[in-house]
Amino acid sequence: MSIAVLGAGAFGSALAIALVRDGRDVTLWGRDTGAIAQMRENRRAVSLPDVILPDALKVSSDLDAACTAKTLIIATPAQTLPSLLGQIRTPLAGKPLVAACKGLDLGTWQGPSRTIADAKPGAFPLILTGPSFAIDIAAGLPTALTLACADADICITVQKQLSTRTLRLYRSSDPVGAELGGALKNVIAIACGACIGAGLGDSARAALMTRGFAEMQRLALALGAQSDTLMGLSGLGDLALTCTSPQSRNYRLGLALGRGDVFDPSITVEGAATARAVTALAQDRGIDLPICATTAALTEHRISITDAMDTLLSRPLKEE
Predict the structure, then answer these.
(1) For the chain: N or C, fewer Cβ within 10 A?
(2) Organism's domain of life (predicted)?
(3) What is the rounded (10 degree) CA torsion for 102, 106, 111, 114?
(4) Which residues are annotated as a binding site for substrate?
């Protein structure tokens, strides 16, 4: 069964490499024709320059051709998902569309599953998320992810199709919880990076992770997610990885903010946009998310790191 990975960044390239190594028929699509031509010629991923692309991996900039595959994995940034879906002219009715992007849309406050359902109502939206770094997947290191879909039969089929010897997928019937866990942990990772960058220590980071996880649960449950989902790979697992490793771009952005350094604006950091989207959504629903709101203000340079910590530490005392 053919698979197309839409998005030739680090994560999309890594997924394509892992799948083709396990014998799958895979096409990796990217919108930058020059970069794709370079990848085809030198067999190196642009975002993973030390990784060799397997000979069997097809690399293409033809979106219509790529979308004829039986299953599509969308690994573009969350904020570009609506635009990409709008460009797809190939009929997608009855086809699994697996979103491997983490974030909430700034314009609609929606996650990828609802964005896909609205744009391509005949397709089956799935969410692929969990604790994973692209370089680990590309290197063939063991990785476990959550695959979430409201349709149990589709989820079982795609789980079998995308699981490999080193990539283990666990099913979930809760796409809302899975995508919110993957989106919100990026926001908390920025806060934790800022904490360490400012020299506030590991104890403060542990407090931010714990209270941040409480915010993740609070919002997810209010939006209809299942509490167990946030306790799994797509919530707690991803939070633990992203808040503690400089491999995370969100964590690195936080480090830069905490240190007062300039962060490379060309690097996509999903958590910055998600912080703004989730803060607006929470305010609209009357949900208290102080860490997310403070992180949004910090990433927009509306407050300093000192102001951010003061804001959180001066909140009224309460029960945990």
Answers:
(1) C
(2) Bacteria
(3) -140
(4) 102, 249-250
Mean pLDDT of the 184-196 span: 97
Which residues are known binding-site members for sn-glycerol 3-phosphate?
Answer: 102, 130, 132, 185, 238, 248-250
> pLDDT digits over 238-292, tens only?
999 999 999 999 999 999 999 999 999 888 899 999 999 999 999 999 999 999 9
Give the right CATH number for 176-314 from 1.10.1040.10, 3.90.550.10, 3.20.20.70, 3.40.50.2300.
1.10.1040.10
User: Taking the complete model, does pTM exceed 0.90, yes or no?
Assistant: yes
Spatial CB neighbours of 319, under 8 Å, sequence gap ≥ 6: none
The superfamily (CATH) of domain 3-173 is NAD(P)-binding Rossmann-like Domain (3.40.50.720)
The catalytic residue positions are: 185
> Which residue in 193, 210, 217 sits closest to 271, CA to CA?
193
